[in-house]
Amino acid sequence: MRLDKFLANHGLGTRTEVKQLIKKGNITVNDVIIKKPEHQIAEESDVIASDGDVIRYEKALYIILNKPAGVISATEDNMHTTVVDLMPEYSHFDLHPVGRLDKDTEGLLILTTDGQFSHNVLSPKKHVNKTYFARLDGEVTPAAIQQFKEGITLDDDYKCKPADLRILGSGEIEVTIQEGKFHQVKRMFQAVGRTVVYLKRIRMGSLELPDDLETGQYRKMSEKEINLVQQV
């Protein structure tokens, strides 16, 4: 792993900030001062220190967030509140959201420093389901269940992979998809003549949004939860 990535992943600052620390000679690897951010380290065996303080290696950081509406799924933005802004104690970690929820969409969002985990969860080849609860501007007919199962064609002629639609009643549904196209759930319902008025992600893989995690709250994930995300 690159030295600057290791330091950012362990909360010593942004990539730009940790590069400055390295160039100033504040960082040692096995008691040797290293001034190149791109220096490769063996993160599990090398001893990395900042001003003499050893940095304990953590493989990765995984945070589960119940995202509120009005917040964007990004790491930085000059105009809008980001999901990273909600967790100031983790602001110096090199976190990124695993996929995105629209600004007005609520619910389950994971942030991590583990790029391979993100790839595994987001790749359509891995078949990790994402389930949403939605309120619509009216009822959908039972015929829509078959349309979703066969694959909805969006307004740009893209044909979605098969999706599972459950009609709960009173204009409320649950839908499970494996992709994450731009505004996909909203556009799928537009294709059957309905508008989504409220959207919340409630499940990723086999991981349910915890009942005790209020809107806007977040916490570190357990190993069991991390594994549940990757289960189909």
Automatic annotation (TrEMBL):
Broad enzyme group: isomerase
Domain RNA-binding S4: 1-64
Assigned EC number: 5.4.99.-
InterPro entries listed in its UniProt record: PsdUridine_s_RsuA/RluB/E/F_cat, PsdUridine_synth_cat_dom_sf, PsdUridine_synth_RsuA/RluA, PsdUridine_synth_RsuA/RluB/E/F, PsdUridine_synth_RsuA/RluB_CS, RsuA_PseudoU_synthase, S4_RNA-bd, S4_RNA-bd_sf
BP-aspect Gene Ontology terms: enzyme-directed rRNA pseudouridine synthesis
GO molecular function, one term: RNA binding
GO cellular component labels: cytosol
Keyword Isomerase: yes
Database matches in Pfam families: PseudoU_synth_2, S4
SUPFAM superfamilies named in the record: Alpha-L RNA-binding motif (SSF55174), Pseudouridine synthase (SSF55120)
Keywords for the protein's UniProt record, in alphabetical order: Isomerase, RNA-binding
Keyword Isomerase attributed: yes
Record-stated family: Belongs to the pseudouridine synthase RsuA family.
Name of the protein in question: Pseudouridine synthase
Origin species: Macrococcus carouselicus
